[in-house]
Structures are given as structure tokens and as C-alpha cells.
Amino acid sequence: MSVTPINVYSIPELRQTLDADISSELNRLNFKEVFTYVDMKLVIGYSIGMVAGTSFIIDKNFDYKETINYQKLLVLFYVILSGAFWWLTNIFQKNVIYTGENVKEECKVVIRSHFENNNPIYILVIEKTNTKTGKVETINANLPVNKVFNEAGYLQKSLYFEWLKDQLEMSAKKDL
Amino acid sequence: MNLRLELTRFLNVCFILSSTFMVWKGLSVVTDSHSPIVVVISGSMEPAFQRGDVLFLWNRNELNKVGDIVVYEQNSKSIPIVHRVLREHHSQSSSNSKQLLLTKGDNNAGNDISLYADRNIYLDKQNDIVGTVKGYLPKVGYITIWISENQYAKYGLMGLIALSSLFSTE
Amino acid sequence: MYSLSQRFQNVTNQALTYSFLIIGFVIATSWFHLQQNNVFQTPVAINTLNSNINVRSSRFFGSTTGKPKENAKITFDLDADFTPFFNWNTKQIFAYLVAEYNGDEKNTKNTVTFWDKIIADKENAVLSIKSEKSKYAVWDLEDKFAGRELTFKLQWNIQPWIGPLVFGETVGNCTFTLPVEQKEKASSNTNNDEATAEKPQKKNRKARKARKAKATNKDSTENKN
Q: Where are the bilayer-spanning segments (chain A) (predicted)?
């Protein structure tokens, strides 16, 4: 069971709890999380912060007319970096909550999650790639949230783990 | 404790602050004016503009016309003034594009000569004009007047923004 | 289904979206109304009747070097109807009578305001002005103003309740040359008038300057001592 109960009527809270927990569950299934894109997002994000900070410091300490060309450059950087960040979060890595690798079973997974129309059904799209053959397989899995949350609002991790395991194994069986 | 999670969460606070500032800077670059949006604080343009009204400026025009409402500032320390152009004089030769302007507040009896620095009797379009008023939004600027004149309001608001971004769940 | 912060966010987002829509609607309809009423083709009748020129030496009348400046005033008739300008987004009309002219010695283009008026409501929107004196005494960059050909135009600015400021010009202008002969008479007259008025001032100023100079001299000599 999770440590704190949540308001099970709030979709954002449900999603956040389920998203955050997936990493540790897959860990138990011998998956190792790959942080390439998460780190990339953090680097771009903090670069954006740095660009804005530099612009702010220049603005506060120097004359407007003398520094306008630097400011133009900084605004350009800001636009480019923000565009890259937006593309990464909203198109390329849209809804991606987990990227991981299982060395033993020689496969990689990219997991996307979302809710539709505020229905309490957690929808996972698991993209499983066999690292040996390069074969890509997409699994659509729907989880009614009342299966893993109890009435008090606690996430029952064991049930969640079992469900995830089933989804991944089902595909493995299909493989055979 | 997950460092990446904490960093991502802190990034949200960064984004709120930086986007506010950079949108302002971006506007300033696009309009070529160091303060593209101003709030009226005096009544010298009444009844057209009242205290608290928000004005949107544009400064990419090479020349001003008589009748334009401009914001000018003669040295960076002084408060910017919003007044109407009463006269303009400019050279017709293309090499010399200097334009001289005389301004007046609609609500003032006389022109602005007494307000100009260094015993000038004209403003220099190139150096003194912050921007020409293009758009108008009534009263909304009272918030900023309230914030700038009330320290507690300022810090309170900043704190509220920071807190809300910390606790927001996407 | 909702948390409090999300609900707050939704409400503010919605409020902003709707207010932008309403503002857009107001701006569009008032623009449409202006086009329909053909306000950009509003006719005007301007007639410049008279002018007089005064010579002034004050900084507030354009003289920075101490050289006298010719300050011109005019008398004019004006007829224009601004009633169609008023719609639900019109806060006021600022109507102003300008004169355009070219430089005499220098190659300049100039526009100056002689008179203006704030029209605050529809009831006072018909301007019918007879032999009105110009509000402002106008000088040029050059010391001489007489003999210049002025083209008078009535221009306007619509100050909206919200949205963009609209500027335009009425159709119909009048040209008028500031008479030179009259100026010579007038300026000689005013010269005489002002000479008497101005001399004591100048004297005073000179005396003051002299006194100042003395004082500083004293200071410096004292310092030397």
C-alpha cells in the first residue's frame, strides 16, 4: 500500500500517483529506467531558466540601449529553447512516463499514460521493443482505477504490480 | 527522495518566473521599446486616459505624426510621461532623419516645455520617445499601482505565485 | 473529479478567454460601425480668415538663443459633424486643426497644431465655429514664420473605451499664406510694444547677470586672498 491516501475523485491525483509508482514496480520486473529524455528536458529547462536569469540581471544592471543587442540574442535563445522543450514534452515524448530496459529479457519499453474524458480508467500504451530482433510491439492496457485503489484512497501496490506484470507477460506469451 | 522529481518540480517555479520576464523582454524587442506596456499614473491626459489605465506602445515607427500620443522619458531616471504630440518638425533629406516634437497633455493648459530637461524646447524622437500609444485597456493597471505602492501586496503576491506553482498538480 | 487548484485554474482560464472574446467583439463591431458610417470620408469646411504675428523672445515662445521668434495666431471658421463617430466604444473624439508647411531656409517638413477640442459626447459633436481664435501661438524652427504657405487640415483621434486608438483626417483643407506685409506692420508694431515691455526686463536680466558676475568675482577674489 502507498504511504498517503489520495482523493480518488481527482484525475490529476490518480494519474500522478500511478505514474510515479510505475518505476518501482517495473524495477521489480528487472527493468532499469533510462533517463535520457528526462535529463534532456531538465537540461533544456534549466538552460531556459539561465537565459531568463541572465536577461534579468543585464536588465537590472546595465543601460537598455547599450545592451539591446544582447537582449535580442537572449530572447532568440529563449524562443528556440522553449520551442525545443515544448516539442519534447508535447510531441516527441508526449505522455511518456517511463522508459526502461530489461537486459535479461532483451527488451526496451516506452510507456505512455493518459485518462480519457475524465473516466476513471487509466490507459497505458506500452511500446515494447526487442533489442535483439528490433521487433516493435504495442500493448494497449486499460486499468479501472478502483481495482488498485481501495476505498480509503490508498494505492495497493501489490495489485498494481500484478496487473503490470500480466500486461507485459501477456505480450511475451504472444511472442511465443 | 528523488532528485529528478525535485528538480522537475522546482523547474515549474523557474518557468513561471522566467516566462513572465521573457514575454516582457520579447515584447520589448518586438516593439523596440524598453517598456512596451505602461500604466498611466497621472491625470494629465484626462479624460482620454485615467490613472490605472494600461497602454500598449509601439516604437518601430521612424517618425511621429501630430496627434499621436507618445510616452517620453528624457533621462532614464525620470518618470515616463504620456502626452500628445502638438508639433513635429523633420528634415526632408533622407540623410538627416532627426525629428523634433513638442508635446502637451490634453488636460494641461500649456505645452510641455517646462517639463523638458536641460532647457530643451523640443523632444528628440530618436532618443526621448519610449513609444507611441496604439492600444488601450481601461483600469486593469490598478493592480500594478497597488502592488508597487504596497510592499506587503508585492511580497504576498510573489509568495502566492511561488506556492501555487509548488503545489500545483500539473 | 476536480481538485480546488484545478478548478481555480479552469475558472480563470475561462474568464480570460471569454473576456478576450468580448473585447474582440466590441472592437470588431465598433470598427464595422465606423466603416459603415464612412467616418474616414467626413467632410469639413475650414476657412482661415486672419492671422497675426507677435515677436517673442522667451524660451516658452520658441526662442532659445535670445533671438526674437515670430509667433503666429490665426482666426478661422470651421464646420464639421462628428456625430457618426459615436458608437458604443467611443469614449471621446479629439479633433485638432493642424497646419502643414515646408521650411523656408532649411529643407524641413513641419506640422503644427493651432487649435484642438475634446468632444466628449454625441450632443456636442457638431462643430460649427465662427471666427475662433487659435488656441496656440505657433512658432517655427526658423526665426521667421511670415510668408509661409500653410495647409490647414482637421484631423481626429477616436479614444475608445477599450482597444486600438483610431486616427484619421477629414476631407477638405484650406491653404493660407501668412501675410508678409501685415507681418512687417504687425511686427514693427509689436516690436515697439514689446520693446518697451521687453527692455526693462532685459535691463533687469543684464543687471542680475552683472550682479551675479560680481558676486562670483568677489568669491574668487576672496578665495584667492
A: 34-58, 70-88
Q: Between helices B142-149 and B151-167, what is the axis angle to 10°?
A: 110
ipTM confidence score: 0.85
- The reply to whether A110 and A80 lie within a common domain is no
User: What residue ranges define each of the domains in chain C, with the CATH number in brackets?
Assistant: 39-199 (2.60.40)
The two counts, helices (H) then strands (E), for chain A are 4, 5
* B93 counts as catalytic: no
Residue of B33, B53, B112, B128 marked active site: B112
pLDDT at C219: 41
Q: Report the distance separating Cα A175 and Cα A130, nearest Å.
A: 10
User: To the nearest 5 percent, what fractions of chain B are helix, strand and coil?
Assistant: 40, 25, 40
Does residue B10 sit within a domain? no
> Is there a catalytic annotation at residue B90?
no
Q: Compute the 3-state secondary structure of chain C and give helix, strand, coil in percent, each to the nearest 5.
A: 40, 35, 25
- Considering the domain architecture, whether residues A16 and A43 belong to the same structural domain is answered as no
Number of domains in chain B: 1
User: Tens of pLDDT along C79-103?
Assistant: 999 999 999 999 999 999 999 999 8
Residue A2: per-residue pLDDT: 54
Enclosing domain of residue A116: 11-30+103-175
Q: pTM of the entire structure?
A: 0.80
Does A35 reach chain B within 8 Å, measured CB to CB?
yes
Residue B167: inside a domain, yes or no? Answer: no
Number of residue pairs across B and C with CB atoms under 8 Å?
91
- Interchain proximity B4–A63, CB inside 8 Å: no
Report the number of distinct structural domains present in chain A: 2
Residue B35: which domain range? 30-155
Q: What radius of gyration, in Å, describes the C-alpha atoms of chain A? A: 21
